[in-house]
User: What shape does this take?
Amino acid sequence: MHLFLLAGHETSANTTAIAFSLLAFHPAIQATLQQELDDIFLGRDPESASWSFEKDYPRLVNGYVGALLNETLRLYPTLPLISKCTGDIPQEIVTEARTFVVPADTLVVINIAATHRNPRYWPGDADAFDPTRWLGKNRASPDAFLPFSDGYRACLGKRFAQIEFCAVVARVFSQYSVVLADDACKGGDAGALGALDSHVSFGMTLRLRKDFPLRFVRRSGLPLQSKVEV
Assistant: This one.
């Protein structure tokens, strides 16, 4: 419970904040996300019992919402570096038909941030925010995607984090759109991504060190002057 409620709070909050900022920078991507939410929920009231984990969650996590989560974590992993140790026994690593032996009691640090943006593993522009790389026949390979680590000591809260993220995004974007409250950070995909990159830093986890002012606008067609700021 300590891990889920405390460790999960910091990581999930930061990832959600970055995802919301990315959607504000990319309104076309946000519109595609909202269209899929409309197709999934078909106007069902989120306050009622008509939203179902068994029925709706698989479509969310395997669709555009899950793609948004993966792409956010690819560009902004919670932990840029993950450490592993070989323990008492040397370990063999086979890569590209070559075998390397890592001695016992050796600390190995995996550079997650660099791996997630390595053009060798990510077709097209590896620095571009593109959730569609996780959908359809062009779905990215999970081998170079390690936001929750991997193996026997992978993150115990992975499933919890995925469910939490899907629930928050579905609840908010089924009724609201998010836009930048300040136009200073606009300027196309490259400019937006560069602005966001310059505002993150690593403490206990990767997080925004400067707030992006956002407005949440009801999707019911309210005029611009009727925005609800939060």
